[in-house]
Amino acid sequence: MNFDNPAWRATPLRTGFRVFKSLLRRRLRGFSTVPVRYDQARSLIYADLGTPLGLELYRYGHRDPDIDLVGRLLSPGDTFVDGGANVGLFTLVAAERVGNLGKVVAYEPGRGVRARLLENVALNRLTQVEVLPLALSSAPGEANFQEFDIAGAGLNHLVPGGVENGHVDTVKLTTLDASLPEPARARLSLIKFDLEGAEHAALLGSSGVLSASHPDLLLEIEAAHLARMGSSPEAVAELLRGHGYEFFRPAADGDAVCLTRLSDIASSAAAPNVFATVDPGRARRSGIRFR
To answer: Is 2 within the bounds of a domain?
Structure first.
């Protein structure tokens, strides 16, 4: 139990009751996965009480400045690319913001977690979401893919040569340039890549999209993960500066989201995500604060 969660201070009785119910549900077969309200009740998401994320969703709700940033930046009719979509935390928020006239393209090569993503898309009847069973990289092909159980699915990653302990699958690789339909590119506003080290490769495979559309980017930048794939934060920064991008660190500021300018995207931080844009004014016009 996370007694530091603000829910304990805001609604202690409700939170305590939810914690008690979650302990009971985990022991009852058929009751350990339950739909809960998400994104300030704009949508629903299945909470698997056998996972840390599911317990958080059920007991406290889930707030994250990176997800809030995505929600504030997107508008009806936009296109959002979710690279490494997992169960759909970003996909669901994006789909609500872009609406039926917009498009969300979610890439998720992991079989188990992709099944949960599809269940969440179906739960909300999101016809504007397309889920692709592909891994983003610098060129089409195939690769080994390390898959963990659903509780650790956020750590699934491509395996460059050799394999690790656990389940290894073979997945198809694609590039964003090759797989993103032309109609979706016309309104492409924002890309999120959380690829456990394959972010640089995916950006290399997105050079045409970046040059033509200059979308905002939300990227996980973990030096150790990038090194596993033969890259580095410096290589990512050099590539994106060539397209005119500037870098910022997202953070919560009360109920608002703020962005702090970065000169070095490899600088350590509790949260590894970096926001990159060619036009900071777009974020300012969306109500995002800058420090």
So the answer is: no
